[in-house]
């Protein structure tokens, strides 16, 4: 790459080169369209034949690069954005600017280059360019590499019907012959201020040189003049062709790709219009709607829930809109908001606005996204049908036939579009919609992929083993490619996350001097207890789980029920708390049992991992609800202070927190008496204070679960002062201590107990 000092003229390519630094400057790609594929393919193949390959940067994802120089041509003729900048092959490749056009810089890069490049081009009359590179990857990163190994000689059949496209410029056979998989082209663009300074400095210092180059014919006659001439020639050709087509068949020539895409979207929208007629006349199934206010981290939301707790909608503070998962419930949702005390106005005649679509409005940021509903698909994966800009009042639809129903939808949300227009979705939206078109019919309950060996899987009943090695959507290919790689090595000395996870699970420091195969997946790992080697990935899955709540029960639900019941039986002697799962509580000498309880943790969903569809059949379960679903809380009575239930040994506990402590003491063989009275005192104990438990040696134990309440804190202070006054040993436990119970009660645990 050239230095960053000044803009330099490169006579071999005929460009004024903007300098760049790969280590500091931005390196974006550019948008490629079908009409620019031939020029881009010719440019890439020309550079591949030169084989000027260099190693990639140390932290880059690609394996190697081929340095290139490309032109940057202002394109004020662009219909979408007059600031557009075309990325072209250098003038030395021959042909006009249009013939060498390879794509357009993305809009995000135009503020860096557009104005400066135009000024420099007009001032000097010489084309401007920048540095870049072609990305190269190892062939093994492509799935076809493994397909060829499995099916020898199949590459000719694969390439028989291949045609160049903007997604693949070079065929698989050409890439194999070259020795690298070919990626995209990156251009090197300095910061805006740097480009501005370089352009301001160049004319004064190099005007004479530019004039000399122009006189000697070292540079083209000017990009602007070249562009005008090329556009005029192309317009003349198209006009002659259009007139001949018009005379012959009454039509103006062949369709453009943009017109074909528009016609395709209109055709795809027609079945939706008929389906929505049936949708609007069918019952919605939601009952007993109510509004509730929820606050999380000072962020308040007003939600609309149905009788079973499923979220139906949200009123966005302060003035709306009211967005719903099903537009058919708007009247009932408005009534629920008014009953909740929210002053909300409905459209004047809601009943007359009956031509609405089966779609949802996602209101956020500077625009509203309108997405088409699909059963079993989360809101983030729904395809987008258009968007609304509240500031300008413009509704943009991707299919002309959707303009009317989407307008009605916005009217029901309390806004009236000032302008309704047709538009083409951005490239990222187009890719999102393509992924949504092939999305599975329902959300997968698998959130993470594990590599548990067959031997370890046998610790779990055969009915539930498949969830230990099930793959999330799109993971199959990555898993196959990764299976050919050597086993990874986890190092707790370098990875603090790994070290903390391992030490938290086993309550001991990691032995950095010992290493062995992970007992669950076989990867190289370290241990915090003798003989118990577990890798970072398995530790993370034991703490995070491989399953998530989707709101629709299935075979995966039964695996969760089994894991909860098994942990309650083998490790906790009762329903475990989430905090207790962070520490293994079985004898470490029984290695197979430790493996089993870790695998059971794999099968447990954690709060916050739930992914529900737009219309779930039930709300995501809380941890207490999962315990009840597994039958581990059958006698619980919900009170204002918690869930009252009986522990495994029959002791009545006023909260699940107390039950976890009681079950621990029972499971570890620590004798404990519930509700012992404190000694009387004329000032400190006039109401008959009681502790939660008394151990065999007279130690009092308190489970402090309501330390956010002032009255409760005052009572705890009295108990502590009372114990000090009478010389009683007092042990206090908080919810954060649940995974430290072995340390807290170490003095009372029988010898040989785990922990």
Question: What can you tell me about this protein's structure?
Answer:
- By secondary structure, the chain is an alpha+beta fold.
- The protein has 21 helices and 28 strands.
- The strands form 6 sheets. Strands 1, 2, 3, 4, 5, 6, 7, 8 and 9 form a 9-stranded mixed sheet that branches. A 5-stranded mixed sheet has the order 14-15-16-17-18, with helices on both faces. The protein has a 4-stranded antiparallel sheet with strand order 10-11-12-13.
- β17 (394-397), α10 and β18 (419-422) form a beta-alpha-beta unit.
- The protein is globular and about 105 Å long.
Which terms would index this structure?
755 residues; alpha+beta; five-stranded mixed beta sheet
Describe the structure concisely.
With 755 residues, this protein is an alpha+beta fold.
DSSP strand count: 28
Main beta-sheet annotation? 9 strands, mixed
Flag low-confidence runs: 217-221, 474-487
Helical content class: 25-40%
Ordered list of secondary-structure elements with their pairings:
Layout: E1 8-10, E2 15-18, E3 30-31, H1 37-50, E4 54-55, E5 64-74, E6 85-88, E7 101-105, H2 107-124, E8 128-137, H3 143-150, H4 155-160, H5 172-178, E9 181-187, H6 192-215, H7 223-249, H8 257-281, E10 290-296, E11 299-305, E12 311-315, E13 322-324, H9 330-339, E14 359-364, E15 367-372, E16 384-389, E17 394-397, H10 403-412, E18 419-422, H11 427-437, H12 454-457, H13 476-482, H14 496-506, E19 511-517, E20 524-529, E21 532-534, H15 536-544, H16 555-572, H17 591-602, H18 623-629, E22 637-639, E23 642-646, E24 652-653, H19 656-667, E25 672-674, E26 693-695, E27 700-704, H20 710-726, E28 730-734, H21 741-744
Parallel strand pairs: 2-8, 17-18, 27-28
Antiparallel strand pairs: 1-2, 3-7, 4-5, 5-6, 5-8, 6-7, 8-9, 10-11, 11-12, 12-13, 14-15, 15-16, 16-17, 19-20, 20-21, 22-23, 23-24, 25-26, 26-27
């Amino acid at each position: 790459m050239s230095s960053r000092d000044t803009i330099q003229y490169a006579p071999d390519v005929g460009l004024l080169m903007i300098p760049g630094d790969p280590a500091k400057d931005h390196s974006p790609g550019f948008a490629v369209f079908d009409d620019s594929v031939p020029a881009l393919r010719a440019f890439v193949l020309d550079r591949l034949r030169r084989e000027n390959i260099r190693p990639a940067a140390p932290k880059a994802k690609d394996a190697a690069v081929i340095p290139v120089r490309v032109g940057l041509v202002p394109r004020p003729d662009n219909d979408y954005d007059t600031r557009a900048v075309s990325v072209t092959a250098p003038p030395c490749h021959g042909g006009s600017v249009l013939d060498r056009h390879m794509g357009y810089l993305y809009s995000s890069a135009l503020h860096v280059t557009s104005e400066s490049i135009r000024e420099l081009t007009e001032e000097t009359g010489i084309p401007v360019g920048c540095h870049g590179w072609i990305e190269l990857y190892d062939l093994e990163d492509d799935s076809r590499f493994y397909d060829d190994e499995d099916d020898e000689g199949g590459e000719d059949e694969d390439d028989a019907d291949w045609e160049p496209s903007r997604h693949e410029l070079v065929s698989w056979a050409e890439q194999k012959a070259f020795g690298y998989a070919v990626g995209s082209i990156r251009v090197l663009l300095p910061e805006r201020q740097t480009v501005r300074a370089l352009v301001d400095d160049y004319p004064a210092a190099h005007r004479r040189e530019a004039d000399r180059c122009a006189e000697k014919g070292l540079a083209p006659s000017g990009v602007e003049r070249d562009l005008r001439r090329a556009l005029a020639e192309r317009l003349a050709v198209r006009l002659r062709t259009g007139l001949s087509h018009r005379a012959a068949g009454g039509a103006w020539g062949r369709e453009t790709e943009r017109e074909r895409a528009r016609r395709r979207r209109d055709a795809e929208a027609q079945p939706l219009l008929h389906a929505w007629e049936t949708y609007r006349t069918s019952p919605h199934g939601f009952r007993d709607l109510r509004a509730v206010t929820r606050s999380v981290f000072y962020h308040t939301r007003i939600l609309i829930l149905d009788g079973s707790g499923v979220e139906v909608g949200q009123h966005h503070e302060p003035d709306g809109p009211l967005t719903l998962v099903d537009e058919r419930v708007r009247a009932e949702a408005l009534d629920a908001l008014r009953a909740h005390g929210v002053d909300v106005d409905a459209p004047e005649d809601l009943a007359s606005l009956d031509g609405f679509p089966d779609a949802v409005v996602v209101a956020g940021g500077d625009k509203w996204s309108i997405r088409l509903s699909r059963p079993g698909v989360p809101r983030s994966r729904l395809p987008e049908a258009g968007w609304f800009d509240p500031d300008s009042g413009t509704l943009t639809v991707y299919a002309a036939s959707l303009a009317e129903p989407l307008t009605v939808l916005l009217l029901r949300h309390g806004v009236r579009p000032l302008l309704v227009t047709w538009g083409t979705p951005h490239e990222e939206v187009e890719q999102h919609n393509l992924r949504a078109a092939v999305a599975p019919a329902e959300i997968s309950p698998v959130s993470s992929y594990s590599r548990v060996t067959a031997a370890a899987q046998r610790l779990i009943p055969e009915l539930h083993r498949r969830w230990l090695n099930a793959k999330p959507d799109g993971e199959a290919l990555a898993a196959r490619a990764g299976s050919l790689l050597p086993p990874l090595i986890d190092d707790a000395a370098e990875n603090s996350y790994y070290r903390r996870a391992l030490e938290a699970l086993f309550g001991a420091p990691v032995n950095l001097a010992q290493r062995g195969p992970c007992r669950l997946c076989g990867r190289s790992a370290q241990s915090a207890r003798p003989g118990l080697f577990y890798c970072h990935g398995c530790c993370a899955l034991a703490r995070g789980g491989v399953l998530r709540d989707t709101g629709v029960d299935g075979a995966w639900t039964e695996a969760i029920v089994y894991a909860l019941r098994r942990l309650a039986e083998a490790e906790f002697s009762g329903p475990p708390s989430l905090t207790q799962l962070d520490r293994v509580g079985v004898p470490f000498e029984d290695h197979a049992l430790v493996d089993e309880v870790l695998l059971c943790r794999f099968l447990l969903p954690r709060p916050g991992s739930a992914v529900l569809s737009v219309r779930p059949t039930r709300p995501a379960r809380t941890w207490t609800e999962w315990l009840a679903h597994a039958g581990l809380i059958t006698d619980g009575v919900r009170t204002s202070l918690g869930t009252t239930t009986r522990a495994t040994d029959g002791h009545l506990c006023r909260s699940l927190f107390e039950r976890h402590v009681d079950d621990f003491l029972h499971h570890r063989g620590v004798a404990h008496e519930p509700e012992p009275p404190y000694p009387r005192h004329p000032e400190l104990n006039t109401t008959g204070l009681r502790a939660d438990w008394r151990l065999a040696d007279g130690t009092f134990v308190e489970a402090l679960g309501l330390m956010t309440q002032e009255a409760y804190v005052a009572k705890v202070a009295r108990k502590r002062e009372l114990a000090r006054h009478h010389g009683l040993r007092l042990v206090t436990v908080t919810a954060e201590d649940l995974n430290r119970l072995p340390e807290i009660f170490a003095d009372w645990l029988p010898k040989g107990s785990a922990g």
